[in-house]
């Protein structure tokens, strides 16, 4: 079974939702048969690269709140993170363009290190005061995730690499009806939107599991002898 | 879009079918949006490791044919391979237990080298007289596919590694109704069985593409504020 998770490192509910999904998965009887793939979704693709703001002033400005109100809003997110068992330093993260992180996550997938990199990026964004909007820092974390430093640096330096893969994920999210993240898709048949409680993820996994023997629509007809089976290949 | 291909290196129609699928994919307008994953299916899991037979005597014995008839059957497979543009040395390959190759293919997937390894194994099994049922040779080919030699050797040496992944693929094949290989599954909605002509694969890709915006069944309801969207995260 396959679960695709559209998310953005900049999204606190993605950080929380990913942890709740993992808790829900842990309680699922067939967890060893579940493959998890991370997909790209930029919360704000219009942010120019290099423009970084602290989260609380950004929230205040964006929603016309006082700094105190923005701080309270952040505190509610932090409380949800803490309740989920996650580290979260209130107000410590910044906000910027995440396209390069998404490209790097696609490179990591190709190297079999996607899960590691996504986990490290989320944890560092929300529970470490150092900014991720910095190629040197990003590269350190890529190495921590098991990626080759030179290869990861080459990916970061060339904006065209994995750019199509990021865009393709975003087009797919739109086609699947996602308008926000986190967005979880199970076997392309069931969807869960948002950082739901762990039990909802377990339930979704169980529903998808029960529905997982689809009747495939057969295309074409095998010419005689074009298949090999347990008793050997047909002799045409 | 995602295509899963259940196959076995020991299966000549898998070698031919893979090439025809690739030709069909080449003619498909959205080929860049297609992800291909190889899945395990052992033609004969009962063969003990270390027992290897030449193909023509094996065919003769299995089907109660003369060696001449077995040679003719092999010749028909070879002719199909040649017509598909593939190298194929008539009667040169041997037959044995492929479990270790499947485990190695799963390791390669984790390293982002699955496509390379599968292509190299098929080409060498059917168009090179050296046997693949030999850890030294298998390791050479793993390195040729871009895998680390020591890591690949460690996988081959430990029969438990990726064994569950191979078994899980085989259970899924059974659940999807596959009794022989190659077996192609598009987005878990369309199936193609056998080494069909390239046009059948193009047609299947087109049908799957047209059907690729599924209505997801929504599980759970997002609590207010558990989603981040293009305008930022909801403030609960």
From TrEMBL, chains A, B:
UniProt xrefs under InterPro entries: DSBA-like_thioredoxin_dom, Thioredoxin-like_sf
SUPFAM superfamilies registered for this protein in UniProt: Thioredoxin-like
A Pfam family the protein falls into: DSBA
Gene3D superfamilies, alphabetized: Glutaredoxin
Domain DSBA-like thioredoxin: 3-205
Protein name: DsbA family oxidoreductase
